[in-house]
Amino acid sequence: MATQLIRGMGSFDKSCACVRQSRCSHPYFIRYRDATGSQREESGYATQQSALDRLTKVYEEKRSTPRAQADLRREIGKQRFGEYAPNWLARQRHYAPGSTRSVGQVLNSQLLPVLESRRMNAFTSTVVEDFITSMEERGVGSAAQQNAFDTLKKILLDARRRGGLAGDPFNGVVPPEYTPRRIAIPTLDEIHAIKAASSDELRVVVDLMSGCGLRNGEAYAANQERMVADDVYRITEQIDGRTRMPARLKHRKLGEFREAPMPSTVRESLLRFEKEHGVDSNGYLLRTQRAAYWAHTTLNYQWSAAKKRAGITRRLTPYSLRHFFASNCLANGIPITDVAEWMGHKNINMTFRIYRHLMPASIGRAAKLLNEGL
User: Fold this and answer.
1) pLDDT band of 12, cuts 50, 70, 90
2) Which of 27, 45, 336, 367 sits a CA distance of 20 to 30 A from 354?
């Protein structure tokens, strides 16, 4: 029979059927209510004293928690996922508009249809594993599974940080397996062929993406004032592909920027365009007849037309130009840490996951270099 302690502290017991439980070797388990009001059970305590020490610690933590903070934790824990998730997304003010839309799509297509009604304090590792299984049963692609899992993890760990979850719902959970598809990298001849068949505007985009590693929207914001040195291009903003308006960089706060090396060919391309076409009052190079800035529709139309004129049938997209930049850097021995920074990746793991196969063979190459040092 469970030993009941003072009110609110919890209880401890053994689940075995031994006659003298106080002397048998089976471990004790404890039951208590956490700061969110949810009942918890833990096992594996070798002695009564170790079980009691744990209950005492939990009880003291609850008592020392201010009433307002405890009420907030309970309120968060009782919220439904369908209420908490959109509020979490609204608090991600560091997200660029495109990132907000992408995460919103993941919420609406994968997470909310399955998890909308579940209370936050009811999430456990079993619930997370069941969600992964449900995606597999529904035939969700591996990339979409990874995105959904990553988004769910950010939301639940945010709720845990704020006190709505007492335990780690990802403890022991194996994430969905995702092997990125082998990327398509254009050859230098293909890039030259596309540039020869491009408009002057598209040629600027191609040069910035393949030569400096810019994203599509960052290239739309091509600006003479961003050439802060003969060999340095500063990326301060992007043009949102849907709204056609300037926006902060992906993974950056408003006002933050990054810099990338600028080959002389890119610099000459920008200067030539400026000389032949001029810039607007704010220094921007690219515009269309109907809009002040470029957008995804403009790029996709011109890219497809240039590829057709160049006779290129291989599956290449404008984003392939960024892959060329990374490939060019790594093939020439530039550290992947620098490449990640120049490309604006949030962390080096993403760079490594996508471009590891482009790095020179490591073991054999290292052996030769070490041998030279000996």
Assistant:
1) confident
2) 367
